[in-house]
């Protein structure tokens, strides 16, 4: 009696791979369903009080409400975001350490090529949060009342005026460098360890000019502590509608600040997808969009893959600007 013919080796191999893939998928789904079962840490590589810290705490509270476990914000400023980001990159890829990133990180890919991590190599995208325009402000002691007058003043006194930022590579720094390049002026960059210190000194008159997020500076503008010369978006800000855009004087000028969440490379896709779904639900709430809009922030929603492409495109964009401006990490 003839036996049953043996299955071809390739068929057996395919079946084994399929079974392994199904088993891995089932394990991944089970892991996500159990996630989180303890506290989750969100590392913010910037100083407390700035937009990244504020929105990290906003998101942490609502993720805790949605998922039933603490989401704890861990501010670790230093090195233009490098200190905290490196700590996140070295963390276990289990979904219990996340990184609050901004376009500081996409700038640093070209501004700081020798840092100990690479954004697209060592992290996976989770979800964007929001973006906002910046506002160019001066201390009231500065005579310029408009962007054009500030440019004229800077050209009359090359190297004499300065501008503050929250550190090398941050959106505030690059907005200033972009302005210098497009307006053809020589003003000195004064980096701080965080936006709070820079904001305090522009209000106190220790520095003459600063680009800051509309969300954090608009109240100081309305209170007369600083004078707004221009906003950085393509159109005027709904929060400061009487302030012209910088682009009305310097055609083509545009700069924003955006924030989002990423996780260490190797974080299970099911956990990434669950976090993405929860964050998308949070930022899509009508009351959240309304409240953020009143502050000057616009909610962003993307899948992890879409956010990954957004990050990659932003790296390319800022690489070009870093090269044109000649910006350096120690300037």
Structure report:
The protein is an alpha/beta fold and 331 residues long. The protein has two domains: 32-131 and 259-325, Bordetella uptake gene, domain 1 (D-Maltodextrin-Binding Protein, domain 2); 133-248, D-Maltodextrin-Binding Protein, domain 2 (3-Layer(aba) Sandwich). Helices cover 46% and strands 19% of the residues. It has twelve helices and ten strands. It has helices at 9-34, 51-67, 82-89, 103-111, 119-122, 147-156, 171-183, 195-204, 214-222, 269-283, 286-295, 304-325; strands at residues 40-44, 71-75, 97-102, 123-138, 162-165, 188-191, 209-213, 227-231, 256-264, 297-299. Strands 1, 2, 3, 4, 5, 6, 7, 8, 9 and 10 form a ten-stranded mixed beta sheet that branches. The chain starts with 8 loop residues before the first helix and ends in a 6-residue tail after the last helix. The mean pLDDT is 92.
Short description:
This protein has 2 domains: 32-131 and 259-325, 3-Layer(aba) Sandwich (D-Maltodextrin-Binding Protein, domain 2), CATH 3.40.190.150; 133-248, D-Maltodextrin-Binding Protein, domain 2 (3-Layer(aba) Sandwich), CATH 3.40.190.10. It contains 12 helices and 10 strands.
